[in-house]
């Protein structure tokens, strides 16, 4: 990145100076990326995915994505009732009007009008994370040369009989008299004086110029320098605020999609770049001011001095953006008008392709809302119909905050050309904005937050309808097809009426069919609320519906559409499948041979599903198979299929059903402990010293492992010679799993002129399904493999078919996953006829049922209409006395595997303080057993197991207890004297001996090691206790609490 800095000394010529601003991370497939425009064949040649999506960054070898955030809709004044507003002062009420104004460079500034209980209105804004409040009348008088009468008429209009409005307006204007400011110049000078320090204005600027700067930078910034438009807009906002207080209109819901838009990653990236450049220029000014204050010779005519100042300040902006992408933390002086400082970036995980593409459709409400205890922000509202998927959201803490876009929804990225819209409105009879016909008795017409004009409510409907007709097909006016025409009709206690037009970026849009012309119309969430859109052609009512959906499935995300017959399932099951589909061992990509992810999952036996939605082929998901078609029988056959357990056919397992591979990368860095600048003393390979010959069996002559070599625990994976010690050392493989060397990469420095010091070894670990591995159908029916049942003992049908999987019938009644029954029918019919079955939701009705559709196909193939079959016991050969429901279901193997999770420990490392096992599987730690687990073990009658786990194998210790005083802490080992052995005595119960004693008592005297002599305290006993009890006793003793134990029998 190169900055071109222009400066001028007084009235001299402009001088330009170029400065490198560091290396900027580039988004893949952007117009700065060399992959842009490449064909699939060229991408493969460049070792990339053939269908590379782009849209993410590569930071330190990790794919990072700037997540999309939901923010307030731009340039639209929103009426809000927020109880927290009352905390701003004694007179403040809960009413306010908030508008988020966005500049052309996508930076934003939020302005708020507050209603005070005495009728006054204040204007609030924040600057560099500090909030400021200014009387709204002061802002109005600073914008244009005006008077109280013009302000009064502009807000009241023809409603002079509205005493609620006029009384408060008169009070607001009267209370402003105390400032004694009347003209525009006086008001600007007053504002400039107060905000000079806040804005950091130079001393040579007058107060009036600083006041103008304030208005330009803060007040309704989306309107630029058009102070007339700003004046009109604030009048409208004041009128709307008074209407809200009077109950004439309802508050707008900030949690509804109608008042939201999406902050895109590119916009945020540009905002950060702009701020970092501004910070750089401010630092240059600060450096020059420092020189002036220190009386250093400052010569602005000397170009070398300016160059020196520009070089003196850190200008590496690329490094700051790299930090932002790698951590997701926003380091900003202004906060960029956003509500969070972290969580802006996520890792674009490639667990499977479904997981990867979901990242690009994910929208988050913001980490600020994740901490709120209220559930209001999480609720699914009707305004999000067709824009946010109602199914695809996680269960748990992010539920309702982390949503996904519906598959037909798109985000506008460029501002539309609306230059002919004002002319079209004038032709429809919209009065110009200069006539202040304000109030809810007229409809305001706004275009991107600018008042274009006014019209009557009767005419407003005609204006909106005609404008939409011209938008879809206009020979006369060029009205953009993605223009949002939000007509809010007048209503009692409804939203504030008007026609609100939006053409900006970051809006959600979706296609629907416009019935009068039969053409495509793009609608947004603001206008959709007041439109009549039929779900299907059957529902169209004449003179009611103007639009119809292209498909009912347009409300669902890509992943939610992949769930077969999801309309038959209970809704939470569809939500679970959206999560489990992203946790499946599948095919993460086609260029796996060139990737070096820390961990990569791959399913070897992936198949194309027999039952799939139309969208499955449209998105080309057959290139990334995510599961296997399995013959599934629903029967309680053995005791091993209780609850959610499932029985695997051992032969199916041996033929590769669900077989997967995990790729892991081991890293060896020889420069890890070497300081920068020190000479290289460690090199890969074998040295001249002696070393075990067994190393040669696993390693090549260069000290690197051989491709395809089998590696077991303790085997060497790399050898290097240490010149300092003169010895050859090896790095050993620590995992207990057998692995095979897939790939070896030597990595050098960016400069390319140093020896290789980094090595990555990609290991292939075969993972056949084992008992305890997790599987799932595409209906949220998850379960673990409980047993591999021999094929000879599996039940078989009359045609000799044996199931691959047996699941328990009790999995269905409470979960109501009827879609899985239908998939079983459809899969069976599809396999018999050799066709792929369409599983798109809402295809069937009560007149044309799915059961009949697929039942007829089964009858044609000679099978039972209902999908049941008589089956025979594999053990006895007898026919089972019930018809078994058997069919073909697409099953997924999830990445949650026993080999990654099992934790076994007898003895091992302990914490020094409590002597209890450490925490963590990697550290060979123990499992935490709490009170409820203890109760379960006691209730189960396993008292000896409880004692063994919680005491003998945990923190068993033998301690001495004084039977007399009951203390664990007062026992002490005596110092042995000549001819005697050391004994344990209680110091607190013993008597101090100072004088000489008789010879017969001398044998009972003991010393404590400091020369003090004691007699008695011999009533001690050795007890077995958990060490943590002794630790507890010590902690309580430090607080002056004594514990007393009784070991005597009752």
UniProtKB/TrEMBL annotation:
<dbReference type="InterPro" id="IPR015712">
    <property type="entry name" value="DNA-dir_RNA_pol_su2"/>
</dbReference>
<dbReference type="Pfam" id="PF00562">
    <property type="entry name" value="RNA_pol_Rpb2_6"/>
</dbReference>
<dbReference type="GO" id="GO:0003899">
    <property type="term" value="F:DNA-directed RNA polymerase activity"/>
</dbReference>
<keyword id="KW-0548">Nucleotidyltransferase</keyword>
<dbReference type="InterPro" id="IPR007121">
    <property type="entry name" value="RNA_pol_bsu_CS"/>
</dbReference>
<dbReference type="Pfam" id="PF04565">
    <property type="entry name" value="RNA_pol_Rpb2_3"/>
</dbReference>
<protein>
    <recommendedName>
        <fullName>DNA-directed RNA polymerase subunit beta</fullName>
        <ecNumber>2.7.7.6</ecNumber>
    </recommendedName>
</protein>
<dbReference type="InterPro" id="IPR007120">
    <property type="entry name" value="DNA-dir_RNAP_su2_dom"/>
</dbReference>
<feature type="domain" description="DNA-directed RNA polymerase subunit 2 hybrid-binding">
    <location>
        <begin position="560"/>
        <end position="923"/>
    </location>
</feature>
<dbReference type="GO" id="GO:0032549">
    <property type="term" value="F:ribonucleoside binding"/>
</dbReference>
<keyword id="KW-0539">Nucleus</keyword>
<feature type="domain" description="RNA polymerase Rpb2">
    <location>
        <begin position="346"/>
        <end position="411"/>
    </location>
</feature>
<dbReference type="GO" id="GO:0000428">
    <property type="term" value="C:DNA-directed RNA polymerase complex"/>
</dbReference>
<feature type="domain" description="RNA polymerase beta subunit protrusion">
    <location>
        <begin position="8"/>
        <end position="299"/>
    </location>
</feature>
<dbReference type="InterPro" id="IPR037034">
    <property type="entry name" value="RNA_pol_Rpb2_2_sf"/>
</dbReference>
<dbReference type="InterPro" id="IPR037033">
    <property type="entry name" value="DNA-dir_RNAP_su2_hyb_sf"/>
</dbReference>
<comment type="similarity">
    <text>Belongs to the RNA polymerase beta chain family.</text>
</comment>
<dbReference type="InterPro" id="IPR007645">
    <property type="entry name" value="RNA_pol_Rpb2_3"/>
</dbReference>
<feature type="domain" description="DNA-directed RNA polymerase I subunit RPA2">
    <location>
        <begin position="452"/>
        <end position="510"/>
    </location>
</feature>
<dbReference type="Pfam" id="PF04560">
    <property type="entry name" value="RNA_pol_Rpb2_7"/>
</dbReference>
<dbReference type="Pfam" id="PF06883">
    <property type="entry name" value="RNA_pol_Rpa2_4"/>
</dbReference>
<feature type="domain" description="RNA polymerase Rpb2">
    <location>
        <begin position="925"/>
        <end position="1045"/>
    </location>
</feature>
<dbReference type="GO" id="GO:0008270">
    <property type="term" value="F:zinc ion binding"/>
</dbReference>
<dbReference type="GO" id="GO:0006362">
    <property type="term" value="P:transcription elongation by RNA polymerase I"/>
</dbReference>
<feature type="domain" description="RNA polymerase Rpb2">
    <location>
        <begin position="73"/>
        <end position="262"/>
    </location>
</feature>
<dbReference type="InterPro" id="IPR007644">
    <property type="entry name" value="RNA_pol_bsu_protrusion"/>
</dbReference>
<dbReference type="InterPro" id="IPR009674">
    <property type="entry name" value="Rpa2_dom_4"/>
</dbReference>
<keyword id="KW-0804">Transcription</keyword>
<keyword id="KW-0479">Metal-binding</keyword>
<keyword id="KW-0863">Zinc-finger</keyword>
<dbReference type="GO" id="GO:0005730">
    <property type="term" value="C:nucleolus"/>
</dbReference>
<keyword id="KW-0240">DNA-directed RNA polymerase</keyword>
<keyword id="KW-0808">Transferase</keyword>
<dbReference type="Pfam" id="PF04561">
    <property type="entry name" value="RNA_pol_Rpb2_2"/>
</dbReference>
<dbReference type="InterPro" id="IPR007642">
    <property type="entry name" value="RNA_pol_Rpb2_2"/>
</dbReference>
<dbReference type="Pfam" id="PF04563">
    <property type="entry name" value="RNA_pol_Rpb2_1"/>
</dbReference>
<dbReference type="GO" id="GO:0003677">
    <property type="term" value="F:DNA binding"/>
</dbReference>
<dbReference type="InterPro" id="IPR007641">
    <property type="entry name" value="RNA_pol_Rpb2_7"/>
</dbReference>
<keyword id="KW-0862">Zinc</keyword>
<comment type="function">
    <text>DNA-dependent RNA polymerase catalyzes the transcription of DNA into RNA using the four ribonucleoside triphosphates as substrates.</text>
</comment>
<dbReference type="InterPro" id="IPR014724">
    <property type="entry name" value="RNA_pol_RPB2_OB-fold"/>
</dbReference>
């Amino acid at each position: 990145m190169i900055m071109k800095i222009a400066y001028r000394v007084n009235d001299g010529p402009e001088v330009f100076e170029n400065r490198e601003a560091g290396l900027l991370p580039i988004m893949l497939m952007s117009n700065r990326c060399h992959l842009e425009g490449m064909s699939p064949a060229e991408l493969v040649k460049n070792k990339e995915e053939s269908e590379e999506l782009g849209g993410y960054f590569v930071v330190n070898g990790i794919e990072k994505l700037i997540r999309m955030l939901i923010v307030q809709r731009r340039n639209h004044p929103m009426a809000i009732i927020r109880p927290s507003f009352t905390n701003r002062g004694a007179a403040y009420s809960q009413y306010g009007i908030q508008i988020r104004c966005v500049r052309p460079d996508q930076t934003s500034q939020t302005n708020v009008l507050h209603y005070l209980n005495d009728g006054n209105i204040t204007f609030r804004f924040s600057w560099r994370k500090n909030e400021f409040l200014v009387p709204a009348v002061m802002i109005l008088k600073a914008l244009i040369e005006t008077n109280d009468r013009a302000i009064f008429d502009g807000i009241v209009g023809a409603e002079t009989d509205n005493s609620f409005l006029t009384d408060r307006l008169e009070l607001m204007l009267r209370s402003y008299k105390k400032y004694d400011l009347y003209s525009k110049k006086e008001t600007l000078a007053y504002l400039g004086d107060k905000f000079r320090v806040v804005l950091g204005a130079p001393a040579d600027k007058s107060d009036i110029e600083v006041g103008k700067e304030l208005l330009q930078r803060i007040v309704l910034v989306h309107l630029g320098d058009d102070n007339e438009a700003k004046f009109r807009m604030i009048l409208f906002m004041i009128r709307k605020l008074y209407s809200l207080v009077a109950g004439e209109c309802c508050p707008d819901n900030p949690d509804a999609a109608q008042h939201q838009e999406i902050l895109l990653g590119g916009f945020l990236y540009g905002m950060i770049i702009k701020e970092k450049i501004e910070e750089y220029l401010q630092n240059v000014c600060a450096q020059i001011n420092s020189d002036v204050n220190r009386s250093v010779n400052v010569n602005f005519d000397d170009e070398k001095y300016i160059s020196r100042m520009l070089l003196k300040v850190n200008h590496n902006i690329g490094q700051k953006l790299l930090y932002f992408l790698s951590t997701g933390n926003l380091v900003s002086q202004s906060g960029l008008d956003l509500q969070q400082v972290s969580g802006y970036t996520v890792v674009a995980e490639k667990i499977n392709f479904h997981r990867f593409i979901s990242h690009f459709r994910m929208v988050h409400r913001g980490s600020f809302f994740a901490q709120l205890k209220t559930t209001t922000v999480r609720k699914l509202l009707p305004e999000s119909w067709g824009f946010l998927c109602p199914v695809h959201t996680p269960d748990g803490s992010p539920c309702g905050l982390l949503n996904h876009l519906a598959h037909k929804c798109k985000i506008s990225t460029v501002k539309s050309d609306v230059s002919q819209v004002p002319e079209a409105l004038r032709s429809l009879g919209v009065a110009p904005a200069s006539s202040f016909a304000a109030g809810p008795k007229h409809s305001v017409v706004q275009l991107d937050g600018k008042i274009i004009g006014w019209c009557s409510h009767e005419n407003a409907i005609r204006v909106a309808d005609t404008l939409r007709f011209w938008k879809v097909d206009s020979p006369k006016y060029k009205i953009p097809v993605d223009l949002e025409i939000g007509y809010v009709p007048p209503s009692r206690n409804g939203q504030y009426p008007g026609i609100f037009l939006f053409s900006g970026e970051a809006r959600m849009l979706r296609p629907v069919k416009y019935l009068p012309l039969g053409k495509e119309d793009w609608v947004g969430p603001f206008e959709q609320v007041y439109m009549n859109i039929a779900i299907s052609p059957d529902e169209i009512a004449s003179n009611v519906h103007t639009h119809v959906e292209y498909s009912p499935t347009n409300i669902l995300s890509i992943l939610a559409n992949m769930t077969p017959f999801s309309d038959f399932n209970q809704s939470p099951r569809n939500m679970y499948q959206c999560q489990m589909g992203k946790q499946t061992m599948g095919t993460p990509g086609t260029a796996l041979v060139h990737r070096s992810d820390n961990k990569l999952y791959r399913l070897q036996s992936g198949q194309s599903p027999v039952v799939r939605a139309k969208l499955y082929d449209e998105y080309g998901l057959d290139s990334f198979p995510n599961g296997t078609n399995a013959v599934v029988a629903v029967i309680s056959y053995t005791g091993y299929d209780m609850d959610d357990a499932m029985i695997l056919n051992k032969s199916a397992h041996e033929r590769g059903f669900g077989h997967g591979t995990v790729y892991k990368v081991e890293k060896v860095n020889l420069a890890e402990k070497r300081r920068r600048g020190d000479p290289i003393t460690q090199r890969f390979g074998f040295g001249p010293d002696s070393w075990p010959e067994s190393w040669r069996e696993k390693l090549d002559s260069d000290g690197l492992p051989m491709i395809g070599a089998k590696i077991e625990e303790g085997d060497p994976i790399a050898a290097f010679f240490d010149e300092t010690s003169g010895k050859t050392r090896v790095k050993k493989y620590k995992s207990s799993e057998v692995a095979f060397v897939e790939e070896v990469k030597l990595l050098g420095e960016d400069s390319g002129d140093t020896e290789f010091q980094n090595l990555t070894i990609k290991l292939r670990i075969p993972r056949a399904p084992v008992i305890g591995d997790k599987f799932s159908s595409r209906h949220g029916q998850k379960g673990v493999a409980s047993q591999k049942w021999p094929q000879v003992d599996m039940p078989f049908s009359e045609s000799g078919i044996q199931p691959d999987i047996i699941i328990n019938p009790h999995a269905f009644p409470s979960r109501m996953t009827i879609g899985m029954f239908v998939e079983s029918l459809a899969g069976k019919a599809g396999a018999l006829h050799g066709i792929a079955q369409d599983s798109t939701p809402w295809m069937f009705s009560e007149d044309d049922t799915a059961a009949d559709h697929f039942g007829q196909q089964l009858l044609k193939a000679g099978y039972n209409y209902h999908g049941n079959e008589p089956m025979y016991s594999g053990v006895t050969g007898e026919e089972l006395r019930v018809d078994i429901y058997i069919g073909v279901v697409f099953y997924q193997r999830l990445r949650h595997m026993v080999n990654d999770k099992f934790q076994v420990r007898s003895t091992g490392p302990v914490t020094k303080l409590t002597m209890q096992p450490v925490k963590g599987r990697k550290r060979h730690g123990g499992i935490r057993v709490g009170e409820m687990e203890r109760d379960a073990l006691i209730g189960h009658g396993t008292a000896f197991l409880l004692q063994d786990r919680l005491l003998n194998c945990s923190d068993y210790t033998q301690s001495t207890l004084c039977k007399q005083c009951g203390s664990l802490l007062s026992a002490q080992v005596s110092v042995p004297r000549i001819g005697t052995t050391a004994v344990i005595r209680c110091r607190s119960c013993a008597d101090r001996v100072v004088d000489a004693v008789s010879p017969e008592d001398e044998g009972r005297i003991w010393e404590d090691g400091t020369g003090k002599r004691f007699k008695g305290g011999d009533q001690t006993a050795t007890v077995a206790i958990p060490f943590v009890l002794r630790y507890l006793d010590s902690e309580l003793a430090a607080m002056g609490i004594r514990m007393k134990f009784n070991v005597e029998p009752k």
